[in-house]
Write a structure and sequence with these properties.
The chain is α/β, with parallel strands linked by helices and 414 residues long. It has 14 helices and 15 strands. The strands form 2 sheets. It has a 9-stranded mixed beta sheet, sandwiched between helices. The chain has a 6-stranded antiparallel beta sheet with strand order 3-2-1-6-5-4.
Length: 414
């Protein structure tokens, strides 16, 4: 009997032995699995290594997320991509690989998906075939299924590291230079409004988490997300808000816009929006420009300049006002744009940092503070460092916070 056949035979026997009316613990399930494997091994020789593998796979199938559990527990895997029951890919150490794992059936994959989305009070069905969710460890989940996905359910899981990635850790990894991080620390403490831009997989959420660690711990922070991923540490006065999809009748949806408006009545010192991707940019910019200094957010863009254009587009999606007025609002609300990129060697780096200045000739003017300069082109491993370009023009917030001298000291050492 092949491994798959043996596993299915054992699983059928286990299901018959389990009392489905009782409340069973993980230990109870494990004991039933062990007993069935031992009984089967008296009839058919099963090597010890195979027994261990069967126990793990059977337990994961019955109690956890089936074959996904092993992939989720592998710290070298950063992303899991399930293209139907039989095609599972992972990103491991920056490389895209196909695994030899597969679900026993598409029904089993559907069961795992329902288990995931139900765990964070979401739903997915034919009328709502696309959903964003999260796992208990904070990993981001996206599901697309029939009738949108023609080849079966598509499940994508972006894993987050178990250990918190701080700015110090990002410096050690080479994602940002130490002195540049020190400058950002001062800007955050002084209350500069900051947008983090970058493409998919560039590390925006991770960097936002690390950047938020510079916020003084005695401030009141409200975080707003589509699916809660941020892990703000050490802040007692923290309010976490998460958007909610419509119910089965299509009513009672709570959007990012709704949450931003609600947060303004919560007396926040700072508002952190996980990602702005639609007309919620109107409310985010309004919050930044009306007394909530030091607010942070992220957005998809190919450059800092492109982030400005994206903000313009998102505002115009929800409001019919002159483009000049939109640009004036952006110039007034946003202070700094940090652009991240994923380089050819798969490493994630801060590519440039730009200051958003006043309008000039009808456009939002940007002042480049730092840019990443590659030292040796063509090498497999990208080597380079951040070079300062221009000094900060708007130093008023640093002066108000009493941090201007520290800023000048750090700037002179770069």
């Amino acid at each position: 009997m092949d491994n798959t056949g043996l596993k299915e035979k054992l699983k059928s026997k286990i299901m018959l032995d389990i009392d489905m009316t009782a409340t069973l613990t993980d230990k109870d399930i494990g004991q039933v699995i062990d007993r069935c494997i031992i009984e089967e091994s008296t009839k058919t020789y099963i090597p010890l290594k195979e027994k261990v593998r069967l126990r793990v796979e059977l337990f994961n199938s019955l109690r956890k997320l089936d074959i996904l559990t092993e992939l989720l527990e592998d710290d070298e895997i950063s992303e899991i991509m399930v293209n139907g029951a039989n095609n599972i890919f992972v990103e491991k150490k920056g490389r895209l690989l196909r695994t030899d794992k597969h679900f026993e059936s598409e029904d089993k994959l559907h069961t795992v998906i329902q288990q995931i989305v139900a765990g964070c009070n979401r739903r997915i069905n034919e009328s709502s075939p696309i959903v964003d969710a999260r796992l208990p460890d904070g990993s981001r989940v996206n599901v697309v299924q029939n009738p949108v996905s023609l080849g079966g359910p598509v499940l994508t899981i972006r894993k987050f590291p178990h250990n918190e990635i701080t700015m110090e850790r990002l410096v050690q990894m080479g994602s940002i230079d130490k002195r540049v991080a020190d400058i950002l620390s001062l800007l955050v403490r002084a209350g500069y409004n900051i947008f983090i831009s970058g493409g998919t997989g560039s590390g925006k959420t991770t960097f936002l988490n690390a950047l938020s660690d510079f916020i003084p711990k005695d401030e009141r922070i409200v975080t707003i997300e589509d699916s809660a991923e941020l892990q703000i540490q050490g802040v007692e006065n923290l309010v976490r808000l998460e958007a909610k999809g419509a119910n089965i009748e299509g009513d009672n949806e709570i959007t990012i816009r709704n949450l931003i408006k609600a947060s303004l009545r919560m007396r926040p010192d700072r508002i952190i929006v996980g990602e702005v991707r639609d007309e919620a940019a109107i409310d985010m910019l309004a919050a930044m420009g009306t007394g909530h200094d030091g607010s942070l957010s992220t957005g998809h863009a190919n450059s800092a300049r492109d982030m400005v254009s994206r903000l313009e587009t998102m505002v115009l999606m929800g409001m019919d006002i002159p483009l000049t007025a939109v640009r004036m609002q952006i110039a007034s609300a946003v202070d700094i744009i940090i652009h991240l990129g994923r380089l050819r060697d798969k490493t994630r780096r801060v590519i440039d940092i730009e200051e958003v200045c006043k309008m000039f000739d009808g456009n939002v003017n940007l002042n480049k503070l730092f840019e990443f300069v590659e030292l040796s082109e063509g090498d497999a491993r990208v080597k380079g460092s951040m070079k300062k370009v221009n000094d900060l023009i708007n130093t008023s917030k640093l002066m108000s916070a009493g941090l201007i001298n520290q800023y000048r000291e750090v700037w002179s050492e770069i």
